[in-house]
Amino acid sequence: MKTLTIIFFLAYASICFGQANSIIIQLNNGTIYTYQIPDIKEMTISGIPTGIKDIQSVQNVLKTFTLYQNYPNPFSVNGRSTAGGNPSTTIKYEIPSSGAVAINIYDIRGRLIYSSGISSQQAGRHALLWNGRNNSGVPVPSGTYFCRVLYNDSFQTNKLLIVK
Q1: Are residues 42 and 71 in the same domain?
Q2: Average pLDDT for 22-46
Q3: Residue 30: which domain range?
Q4: pTM of whole model > 0.70?
Q5: Domain count of the chain?
């Protein structure tokens, strides 16, 4: 039976340790995950795992993936495009185990604008730099777009803005 050890190191007393900025989760097999506290949207812990049901609940939390807000958003600053004359943004996400990942970008009407295609990726943090172009390489106009990251059988969506 696999069990899970969760190590939380949160130094509230800046006198001794300074301010902690991460949470470390270590599995019994030695695998260590580190999450930056500013990147955590929500965390719920309901008691210490004492039985298989509780342990499975904690493991299910670790089986989800996270799509972080793209940066920069909006893509351009002061009406000027970013480096290279093209607007661009970085889409970051994290997957807990190897799996199929696809990144699709849709316009406000729900039309597919860009697709990364499906690729098999290893567990960990990943990033895609999107240059504000559609699948044909044509720059998309200013507006609101939606980035959907699909991981295995689940997905998460964020709103992206292009301002020229």
Answers
A1: no
A2: 68
A3: 4-62
A4: no
A5: 2
